[in-house]
Automatic annotation (TrEMBL):
The lineage of its organism: Bacteria, Bacillati, Actinomycetota, Actinomycetes, Micrococcales. Residues 1-59 are annotated as: Disordered. It comes from Ornithinimicrobium avium. It comes from the Bacteria. This is DUF3806 domain-containing protein.
Length: 177
């Protein structure tokens, strides 16, 4: 439909100075950021994240990730070392594309999570919410999914962020004790 046709239609649909939008021109429905809840009623969705302790498989993942970072010479207790290691890994991956990036994201996410566990009141947990189940660090309903922190910035090829972002989380959680 051309501009003039739309203007004519709008003029003919106006009643008392108020525009009445015909049904076929109704605004499209808003897209929800939440996943489809299926057949469950809204009151059945968890209002707060539900967490459990990591199982043997999750603890093995954490141990393996920390061991891999140690081999790279990354000190998980030092945010500068962690950030520089992540930046080197991203730069190397962009140059060579040799290693699967999922493995890199995994080990640096575990490194960031472990740094938060060592420096704050957060503990490792397997957290389930309306977005799914993830290995996370949490305290009550405060949840950080380190894989999300790393993966989103990896996709944007962002460097230099880890000391600032993780440092902020450390400051936030040590003040809340």
């Amino acid at each position: 439909m051309g501009l003039l046709d739309r203007l004519k239609r709008a003029a003919s649909s106006t009643t008392g100075g108020t525009h009445v939008r015909p049904a076929e021109e109704a605004a499209p429905p808003r897209v929800s950021a939440l996943p489809d809840r299926g057949d469950r009623a809204a009151d059945e969705l968890p209002l707060t994240p539900e967490s459990t302790r990591p199982g043997d498989e999750d603890r093995a993942r954490i141990k393996a990730g920390l061991a891999a970072l140690e081999v790279e010479g990354v000190d998980v207790d030092d945010l500068t070392s962690l950030g520089e290691g992540l930046d080197r890994a991203l730069s190397g991956w962009m140059t060579r594309h040799g290693e699967d990036h999922d493995g890199i994201v995994e080990r640096y996410a575990i490194g960031i999570g472990e740094h938060l566990v060592r420096r704050t009141d957060l503990t490792w947990a397997v957290v389930t919410d309306v977005f799914g189940t993830d290995l996370a660090v949490s305290a009550g309903d405060f949840v950080v999914v380190p894989h999300n922190l790393v993966a989103v910035r990896w996709m944007r090829r962002e460097t230099g962020w880890a000391p600032r972002v993780v440092g902020h989380l450390v400051d936030l959680r040590t003040r809340s004790r």
